[in-house]
Amino acid sequence: MPLLRVPYTDPLPPPHIIPRTAATVSGAIACLTDFLTAPPSKNLKLDTARNDRTVLLTGAGISVASGLADYRGTNGTYTLNRTYKPVYYNEFTANHEARKRYWARSYLGWTNLHKARPNIAHKAVARLGELGVISSCITQNVDSFHPLAHPSLPTTELHGYLRALVCLTCRTEYPRTAFQTQLSALNPAWAAFLAEVLASGALDTEDPAQRRARGLTTNPDGDVDIPGAPYGTFRYPACPTCLAAGAAAGVQLDSDGGWAEGSSGGVLKPAVVMFGESIPQATKMAAEEAVDGASRVLVVGSSLATYSAWRLVKRARENGMPIGVVNIGGVRGEEVFFGGVAEGNTGREAVRASVDAGEVLPAVVRMVEEVDSI
Ligand SMILES: [Zn+2]
Q1: 31 labeled part of a ligand binding site
Q2: Measured between alpha carbons, how far is residue 125 from residues 199, 262, 299, 348, 362 in Å?
Q3: Residues 149-195 pLDDT 10s
Q4: If you measure from the C-alpha of residue 243 to the centroid of ligand 1, how many angstroms do you get, rounded to a whole number?
């Protein structure tokens, strides 16, 4: 069955903290340290899972401290910008106008996205990898912060990545940075406008309210909207490989040198799994193998609202693995993961904390280092 990425916007129940001591920051740090350093659970059902390591599953919450917008946080898109509708795969692939709108908005949002860097939570993950506590990372984020922060700790990017584009016809990938330069060359008026917006500092602020005051709305995945902007004037390039193949690839250019309506190939798409698009089979299998090869799962900064992530945690639960969740606010269907936790659990069997990952993970690293040095 293909696994589609679909948005889930239903309200989530408030978190049920486990154990009760995890309600404070210091309590959560202690419980998480216990969780990560406990011997493998006796309930593990797979032999492959006895490596005594944790697989990490992260979502947008871990990138908020890097200045990126998320969907569900206090300043999240679903909280502040309820009319926001991300582009769907079918719309993007079928509709030239939808692609113009997508790329114009992505063009405006890229500068900031490209400047953003991994934060202290990603660095803590890197250190936990070095310490042998974390075996691998699965992320729903498309910002490339995990591979940047810890290139040697394996990362499965469940929803792809914005750092590249992929051609829908020949599947060649291209770097997004060079594409930005091509977009500027094809769209001089937009380039002048972007330069103006950047000079005004309107994109510097991370505060959505301030951006709104300056006429901009920012959304996850580097999307910037200017209500009423002439998106129809935007041009985007065709795949250079398909273009070089000539008429056989069905690509034509318009008078400005952009991809021309009526072409039958050479459409470039961000290398992300868009909403309504299937997760590639190889990615799905890599994520399942990462789960099956670990002894426990720690979810950080995700409400597991997308089924592709939720089902991985359910899989871990079915494997008999202890589950930990660090996320501010509710998590979809979390009662499924935490049934039957014994009284007296100090974090070894299960942890559920509603705290900031950037606040707790660096402290957990220090605690694990102390445990290691004894
Ligand atoms: Zn191509």
Answers
A1: no
A2: 35, 47, 12, 19, 9
A3: 999 999 999 999 999 999 999 999 999 999 999 999 999 999 999 99
A4: 7
